[in-house]
Amino acid sequence: MSDLTTRDSAETPDHGHGPASDADAADLARPLFTGPGALPAADVPHRPRASDVDPRAARRVERQVASLFLLAVIMVILFVVAYVAIDPYTMVYVPVLGEVGAQNIALGVTFGLGVFAIGAGAIQWAKKLMPDVEVVQERHSMESSTDETDAAAEQFERGKEESGFGQYRLIRRTLIAALALFPIPLVVLLRDLWSPKNGGFGPSPVEVLSETAWEANMPIVTDGTYAKIRPEDLPVGGLVSALPENINEIQEEEHNLNARGKAAILLVRMEPDEIRSQQGEGWDFQGILAYSKICTHVGCPIALYEHRTHHLLCPCHQSTFDLADSGNVIFGPAARRMPQLPIGVDEEGFLVAKMPFQEPIGPSFWERG
Ligand code: FES
């Protein structure tokens, strides 16, 4: 007898143990499903589906399934179009998610709808058009025999006695305390995922990585001489490695290598009409732009600048950034543009940062969130 059989043909169960016993007969007499509202399967009359008895309903279902598969085809085409046509750096605002890449959204939506349409079409096809047959699968009893449960209980008791678990009360209590407290460190580690932004109490990784020595009105000084810089000190086409004025204080602190590295910036000057885009409104000063000096691939410092093309080349793996176009990546393995620092001048005409960096500095191995 087959394991999988229709209800009608399952009247004489054979559980693989020879002829049907009285217990088997009692099992069969019990309803298959119990609980509130459950009816014995044998008592539920089989109702044919509309598509089984009405050819027009069947054709309607056929059209629904075909439409879903056609929708999947359209989504695949739109996916390819989105990949080719949408600029990977175009951002859009999506409620709840905030600023996200337009291409990522388009790819996600088209791919998701395509997969959904194929799945929904297959389900509709199976439910409405494939043969509608009720089957019952007989199974062995899952219950252990009395001998087996007695043997297990005996072994447990022997183990308890041999280990002395019942005898050594102090050991028993301290072990229970240790095991009870063991999950606490795992829960405490989850604190890192909790940021004030999400209603928690610790900084998020994005906030930590965005934090540098730069703050509003921080004077910009040259790397080496620590002299303040006036806009006229920087000719068009020029490049200067620079630091925040408080860099010397930072250098006196211990364990501050990261802080010093993250503070390094590059100043470049180009004709204002050569600037195609910036990362914020009016972030340059008369064509002078400030970018982080730390490559967003794996963090090499960069200072190879080609002033005619405004390309910044990382010597480590050849990532190339276009400083006239928001520092976007135009070549190489870097996955993210160079962070830009908004700059202006103070009352004495020296270059200063207008505000801190607005995004994480350095490699992009974390979730940008
Ligand atoms: S660190 Fe710059 S390209 Fe790899």
Report the CATH C-level class of the largest domain.
Mainly Beta
Separate helix tally = 10
Q: Whole-number average pLDDT?
A: 83
Q: Assembly type of the shown chains?
A: single chain
> Over the alpha carbons, how many angstroms does the gyration radius reach?
35 Å
Structural class: alpha+beta
Strand arrangement in the largest pleated sheet: 5-6-7-8-13
Distance between the termini: 58 Å
- Determine the strand fraction and express it as a percent band: 5-15%
- The name of the CATH superfamily of the largest domain reads Rieske [2Fe-2S] iron-sulphur domain
Largest beta-sheet characterization:
5 strands, antiparallel
Give the low-pLDDT segments: 1-20
Heterogens: FE2/S2 (inorganic) cluster
Order of helices and strands: EHHHEEHEHHHHEEHHEEEEEEEEE
Q: Summed up, what is this model?
A:
This protein is 34% helix and 15% strand. It has 369 residues and is α+β, with helices and mostly antiparallel strands.
Give a verbal description of the structure.
The chain is α+β, with helices and mostly antiparallel strands. The chain folds into 3 domains: 4-45, no CATH class; 50-135, no CATH class; 214-353, 3-layer Sandwich (Rieske Iron-sulfur Protein), CATH 2.102.10. It is built from 10 helices and 15 strands. It has helices spanning 22-29, 50-53, 55-85, 102-128, 146-163, 169-181, 184-189, 205-210, 247-252, 257-263; strands spanning 4-6, 91-94, 98-101, 135-137, 220-222, 239-244, 265-269, 288-292, 304-306, 311-313, 320-322, 328-331, 340-341, 343-345, 351-353. The strands form 5 sheets. The chain has a 5-stranded antiparallel beta sheet, with no helix packed on it. Strand 9 (304-306) and strand 10 (311-313) form a beta hairpin. Helix 3 packs antiparallel against helix 4 (102-128). It is flat. The relative contact order is 0.08. The model is unreliable at 1-20 (pLDDT under 50).
